[in-house]
Design a protein that fits this description.
With 133 residues, the chain is an all-beta fold. 0% of the residues lie in helices and 35% in strands. The chain is built from no helices and six strands. The termini are far apart.
Length: 133
């Protein structure tokens, strides 16, 4: 867009709208009075995850081992893990010694799904008698 185009309406010329494609699992951390932190995950399982944290991140000054956090798992399309809110507990904070994220820290979390609570059992119905009444 050039300066002569300023003020002119912009029209969408794509045939289909585009949406970003997520290629990695991510996790959102929401702490009171802070911005939302969105971190890449190095590994994920049904019970835990390892988030990659820059060593200069202010997030590290706000979390400690044993702390309980509310987090949200963001998964790419086709992931076998359930996206959404979880209760996380910080299990470890360790330095990554090798690989693409060498020098960063791994924030290890145990995860429990957050939900509306236990599901109530289905109502018990008595079988109906078949045949003449």
């Amino acid at each position: 867009m050039t300066s002569r185009d300023a003020g002119k309406p912009v029209y969408e010329r794509r045939l289909r709208p585009r949406a970003p494609v997520l290629s990695e699992h991510m996790m959102e951390f929401v702490l009171p009075g802070t911005p939302i932190y969105e971190l890449k995950l190095r590994d994920v399982s049904e019970t835990g995850a390892g988030a990659i944290v820059n060593p200069r991140s202010k997030l590290l000054g706000m979390v400690q081992v044993g702390q309980e956090l509310r987090v949200r798992l963001i998964t790419p399309r086709g992931s076998r893990f359930r996206p959404g809110p979880y209760r996380g507990r910080v299990i470890q904070i360790t330095e990554i010694a090798e690989g693409a994220y060498r020098g960063h820290l791994l924030l290890g979390l145990s995860l429990n799904p957050e939900g509306p609570g236990p599901k109530s059992p289905a109502p018990v119905t008595s079988p109906t008698k078949a045949g003449p009444a």
